[in-house]
Design brief:
Elements: H1 9-36, H2 46-74, H3 81-85, H4 94-115, H5 117-120, H6 122-129, H7 132-146, H8 153-180
Helix pairs in contact: 1-2, 1-7, 1-8, 2-4, 4-7
Length: 181
Amino acid sequence: MLASSGPTALWYLTRGTGIVALVLLTAVVVMGVLTARGWSRPGWPRFVSQALHRNLSLFCLLLIGLHIVTTVADGYVPIGYVDAVVPFHSPYRPLWLGLGALSFDLLVALALTSAVRHRLGYRTWKAIHWLAYGSWPLAVLHGLGTGTDRRLGPVLALDLACLAAVVAAGGWRLAMSASSA
């Protein structure tokens, strides 16, 4: 069902949840990069950092779920639930929505394998967890390609800030790895 006129509350909620989900996903990636090298704040035990990383990840998935539900419910464009999980299936902007679906699929795989981490073993879980490094740029590209707010200065600035945060965390991790080698 297509909307008969302009944007609705669901349309705005879809955009808002997408933007906030990107910020949260960026925070999750940055925390993951930092905690993987053993970083923690003085007086802040490592298990607290790991719990915060896990809880932010779950909240991010919940927010992405809300993003998907509001997109489908709005009906402004012909996107269904299958399009959210089957990459490049959507008739509407198939490349950009496909990148979002692929990112979501990777995040779900990460969450599911993290839930059964004790059964998988650390090495297997860690190998699967590297998918996070693919999920984040796919989500960024999804937002840039399909997001109608990408032309707005504040949204573009937020995208650049997210990029800068991940690049800085990655640079720090590489520097730490080089100094310990």
